[in-house]
Structure prediction request, 119 residues.
Amino acid sequence: MSPVLRAGSLFEHMRHICERPRMFAPDFTLDHLHLYIQGYEDARGDEDLPSQYHHFREWIYKQHPTWRDSPEWWARHVFKANSGDLDRTLDDIIRLLDQFLATDGAEFVHFPVRQTQED
Prediction:
């Protein structure tokens, strides 16, 4: 089961894009996702809000230290590991998001509280 994300978090939007990429662009590529992430982070910066992506990127590099010094974006490494299959790559990105949100990214997850009626 996927986590319930805080409304407005970058990770909520990344998941939505990865689940339905062609809804955003019929010829969707990883460049579309990268552009969205950068735009989202730039908008947060314009509002003097802290980066959310930085936390995920650092977590990724802890999992895959050799990617940090690579000139390629981390998602390209995932793409290559999936032999250029975009759908499998997007599924893996969702899995990475879930792993991050279950560990270091727990602050971005909203845990719904069940309301009960008191008698």
About this structure: Residues 10-107 form one domain.
